[in-house]
Amino acid sequence: MSARPEPATLLITGGAGYIGAHTCVALQRAGYRLVVLDNFCNSSPQTLARIERITGQPLEGVQGDVRDRALLDRLFQSQAIQGVLHFAGLKAVGESSEKPLEYYSNNVAGSLVLMQAMQAAGVKTLVFSSSATVYGTPQFLPYTEAHPLAPVNPYGRTKLMVEDMLRDLHQSDADWRVGILRYFNPVGADASGLIGEDPRGIPNNLMPFIAQVATGRREFLNVWGNDYDTPDGTGVRDYIHVTDLAAGHVSALQHLEKTPGCLTLNLGSGQGHSVLEMVRAFEQASGRTIAHRFAPRRAGDLPAFWANADEARRILGWEARCSLLQMCEDTWRFQTQSAEAG
Hints:
Structural class: alpha/beta
CATH topology of the domain at 9-188 and 239-268 and 306-313: Rossmann fold
CATH architecture of the domain at 9-188 and 239-268 and 306-313: 3-Layer(aba) Sandwich
Number of helices: 11
């Protein structure tokens, strides 16, 4: 009887963060062994223990910064790492305009150090957490991967710079297997209620803010603008359940394992929902009234955008499956369990 092959080992940078943690769950369920590197600047070590509880499998957690080349070299030397999923990045659009150097240091310089360490170690498979912000103001909708790239804030520019580095790297060495995944608006939580989006301080994203209003942590939701050219006047976005997004990473990695190349794909639901639609869906999921008030538009906010995700469906056989109501129900489960625990 032949021995079972050892599971492939992956390095997950930022794996304790919101999207990274859910992808760790999906990867463990797909049979991978994980080493998670995180500096916990926007996350908690407790998340790693919760991932282990969900999957029933151990993972190795390492506290450290992706800019620490000596640490990366030690990891690549001591672990038989075969690929990297790179989530370690600051992600608040507004904050990126206030602290641009922090964003360029963490997102761009950190990615450069990671790629240099990977190249030195001969590890040439990388799936990168990019963003739909690389598209900027829509010239047409829905965004396809061929839409011009013109980000309008430092956060988006850092993502585009890393994308460009990866494309140049693959162009210089076809042995690199690169997946560039452009997220739209991830929401929701694992069905267990053990992990979800739990931002420190005031949430930057709509769903966690609504959830905090529902639990009474916040008095009301500001709806920034109700005079856009949209069906109800409020901003429209493409919301995707974080577990669907995590499944997209597994699909992209497995595709790259079989087919070398440089892959750039939108991961979105392919449809837009307005702020008020989200409020109504969350009220249905929680049984609570979401107090909200209208406020003037914020500078830099786009009226509407959503993805064309046909390429991900064609190449990976992947598509978003969860409804807006399920996104809200899973968020509410996580929020109420967190409140009971805390």
